[in-house]
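Q: Sequence in, structure out?
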Amino acid sequence: MKLEKFEKNKVGKMLEYIIEKGSDKFTAPYNIKIKDAGKHMDNDYGILALTDPSKKVVQVISESDIRDLLSKGISLDPTEEFEKTLKSVAARVKYTPITTDSTIKEAIDFVVENKVQNLVVVDENSNFYGVINKDNLVKAIDEIVD
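A: Exactly. Output:
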């Protein structure tokens, strides 16, 4: 049965060829200031994996998350509020990465349930591994089914 491929195969193996890598353009320290986060999100995906000092991904935040935070009262003016770090507001965001050991079905479910365009993938130690774009995921699924 073709659906078994989605329930058994892991993201890290089956989807390796669609995972965009390059931690420099997708990661930033979790204590980055909100005002500086936009510069780090200039990566065609609009997503940022926040890392702790040991480089483990502790949170994922997107451009739409930042827009949502701004709409809830964080000002763009150079005030104390705007100087806050993403760490201080990231608890409002409920987006965590998937792992290379997640099944393809889990990745699909995550996209559907969370209405996200991009998935951050971490390895078994929570280190940044890469990003999967939803459109590339759909194309890969079509190839697997065919």
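The chain has a mean pLDDT of 76.
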